Amino acid sequence: MPSHAEILASNSLLNDTTTPLISVFVGATSGIGKLTLQALVATGASTRIYLIGRPSSLERTQPFIDALHALNPRATIIWAEGEYSLLSETRRICDDILTKEARIDLLFLTAGYAPMFTERAETEEGIEITQSLSYYSRMLFVMKLLPALKAKGEAPGRVISVLGGGLESASGIALDDIDLKKPGNFSGPGMQKQNLGLNSVALDKLAEENPDVVFVHAWPGWVDTGNVHRGVKEGTVWSMFVKWFLAPLIGLVAIRDEVAAQRYLFEATSGYFGGGGVEWKGKAGVNVKGEEGRNGLFLVNYKAGCTPNSKVMEALREKARDKVWEHTVRVLEPYS
């Protein structure tokens, strides 16, 4: 596992060649995505970043965009507006980006929140909203932008999905009710567990079929992003519990923002994960198939170390992957 000093040393070597030239950030108007985007811009490299946000986010995000331009005048931040909880909007956003860019170096996905104490709520497309954000929309972004991620560049294109990589369990996906629609099946923690398992299974499939792209499914640990408040209904007992107990607890044990930012910048740029990026001279990261120094899917913990979870992933590959993928393709087909 790389030490924090090694992470900082790697990040200090970022330049116009090793920094992603063109990036797409989904969900970076707050939380880990925002921290990572800022760290990327702060390298001083010439880079172009598409910041995808909901229409309601622009007013509060504009000062952040202005600050990024002041921090690094060589960076171009392009606001791409869309309600990405809707798959139709995700498709539109991707199609628009693809008319402008033939190559994408980095796709960074953090949209979503933990549905801790909420009832099931669906988008107008009939998909549970946290599942649309944390799984279906993310997979549609990947699938639509794959041609640009696979285009020839200085390094392999890289996809990072931040949710729960390494926390999978062999029985962690409800295959008989993937969308948890059956009465009594939905719960906040249950949907969170379902979504992280689906992410790993689908990314494993995509990594196997696209060996020239690096895939990372990361678990952030405790980072005080404020998203814990989104998972509860205001005015309920649970909202008071979050406000007066859970949120302060997270604040006490959370990883510092600057530490988290550097770790995710490392995941986005280091040769520790597969090929390309900043050269890594030590023992390289190990992907889910136990391969060192090769592309594939990397499950990464909150310290930016690889946790291959190989036995669990092998079981999921054998028992769950085909069914999950068939279901996913069926849901996404109208928007692909």
From TrEMBL:
This is NAD(P)-binding protein. It comes from Immersiella caudata. Signal peptide: none annotated. GO terms for molecular function: oxidoreductase activity. Keywords: Oxidoreductase. The keyword Ligase does not apply.
